[in-house]
TrEMBL record:
Function: Catalyzes the transfer of the gamma-phosphate of ATP to D-galactose to form alpha-D-galactose-1-phosphate (Gal-1-P).
The protein's name in its UniProt record: Galactokinase
All copies of domain GHMP kinase N-terminal, residue ranges: 93-178
Domain of life: Bacteria
GO terms, molecular function: galactokinase activity
Residue numbers binding ATP: 67, 122-128
The family this protein is said to belong to: Belongs to the GHMP kinase family. GalK subfamily.
Keywords: ATP-binding, Carbohydrate metabolism, Cytoplasm, Galactose metabolism, Kinase, Magnesium, Metal-binding, Nucleotide-binding, Transferase
Pfam families named in the record: GalKase_gal_bdg, GHMP_kinases_C, GHMP_kinases_N
NCBIfam families documented for this protein: gal_kin (TIGR00131)
Tagged with keyword Nucleotide-binding: yes
Site description Transition state stabilizer, residues in chain: 27
Length: 384
């Protein structure tokens, strides 16, 4: 939905025009999965799909929230009643951001909000981070908080970890807040230092397809948290602050030290090799060798499937069908247990590959996937 429509609906709901309209995108992660809570490297880029919010300030301690995407009236919350774990609806994301801002000492005295998002939900494309970041950016602007983008991302992560209760890392919020059009974001999640890496697929005769398997996932469920706890156990057993500190050329020695801790061995191997894959992709892209990143993406999928064990039959089917049809590389993207896969292909093969994936899903009697092309798009910004 465009800025004007969102502003118009805001006016109908609240009786006056909004003070402004902001947008924040979802993301796909090119490479670097589950590395973010291990202080490692990630490389997402922003999707053209975005959450759009019309927002005005209030000074009476009320937060009023409405979404075009969810049936229901305006939700009215008292700021002094916002508490972690108190809300299990979609409103927890924007409310969590207001809570996190206030808890960090920022003076936010209320807001009226109307939201509309085109980021598919439960598809591993960061629909929740888009909601959080758009609210954080709007309130930062309106209340003149002067926060840097990385600070907004940190506050949004806190909202998600503490208020919503999902133990996620910092990648999605940083991607939504910091990505730029035409680039992938090379992010070091230890200190949030970042480099924008040019990623112009069309110029290279390439396309990147996103295949939403329609298998819904959730990070507040136990499996994500179990992987995170397993990684932390690995770091503790190895005596490092985070698995980021295990060098790629020291991997075999580290695994030997873990002995018969079979599950931890698999998790550690994924994280250490995945960090290395991010560095390899950065090197290839920086050298203008975009065509060559495909096999690295595919290796990443095998590692997530066999070592991290977070793939599912639908994601594996996308990858296998794409590779059999001549894709340059393919992998699941995002948190896993469903959600989306990405397929890197020559532009000329994209339609045939899409058709084969759809046919393979039909033959397996899976729900039809949703396939679209991803182009590296803008991060969060003010629209009006
Ligand atoms: C989800 C989380 F929100 C991210 O922090 C990240 O861990 C990702 O899964 C896996 O790379 O999107």
């Amino acid at each position: 939905m465009g800025a004007q429509q969102v502003a118009q609906r805001f006016t109908e709901l609240y009786g006056t025009a909004p003070e402004g309209v902001w947008a924040a995108p979802g993301r796909v992660n090119l490479i670097g999965e589950h590395t973010d809570y291990n202080d490692g490297f990630v490389m997402p880029f922003a999707l053209p799909h975005q959450a759009v919010a019309a927002v005005s300030r209030r000074d009476d301690g009320l937060l009023r929230l409405h979404s075009a995407d969810v049936a229901g009236d305006v939700a009215e919350l008292r700021l002094d009643g916002l508490a972690p774990g108190s809300d299990s609806a979609w409103t927890a994301y924007p409310a969590g951001v207001v809570w996190a801002l206030r808890e960090a000492g920022h003076e936010v005295t209320g807001a009226d909000v109307h939201l509309s998002s085109t980021v598919p939900t439960g598809a591993g494309l960061s629909s929740s981070a888009a909601l959080e970041v758009v609210i954080a950016l709007a309130l930062d602007d309106l209340y003149g908080l002067g926060l840097q983008r990385w600070q907004l991302a940190r506050l949004c992560q806190r909202a998600e970890n503490v208020y919503v209760g999902a133990p996620t890392g910092i990648m999605d919020q940083t991607a939504s807040a910091c990505c730029t059009s035409g680039h992938a974001l090379f992010l070091d999640t230890r200190d949030l230092s970042q480099r924008q890496i040019p990623f112009d697929l069309a110029a290279e005769g390439l396309r990147l397809l996103v295949v939403d398997t329609q298998v819904k996932h959730a990070h507040s469920g136990g499996e994500y948290g179990k992987r995170r706890a397993g990684c932390e156990k690995g770091a503790a057993l190895l005596g490092v602050d985070a698995l980021r500190d295990v060098p790629h050329d020291g991997l075999e020695a580290a695994l030997a030290r873990l002995g018969d801790e079979e599950e931890v061995v698999r998790l550690v191997r994924h994280i250490v090799t995945e960090n290395h894959r991010v560095e390899r992709v950065v090197d290839l892209l920086s050298a203008g060798r975009t065509h060559e990143i495909g096999p690295v993406l595919t290796e990443g999928h095998a590692s997530l499937r066999d070592d991290f064990r977070i793939s599912c039959p639908e994601l594996d089917l996308v990858v296998d069908t794409a590779l059999a049809g001549g894709a340059l590389g393919a992998r699941m993207t995002g948190g896993g247990f469903g959600g989306s896969a990405i397929v890197l292909t020559r532009a000329t093969d994209a339609d045939t590959l899409t058709k084969s994936i759809e046919e393979a899903f039909a033959a397996a009697a899976f729900t039809p996937p949703r396939v679209f092309e991803a182009t590296p798009s803008a991060g969060a910004h003010r629209l009006t």
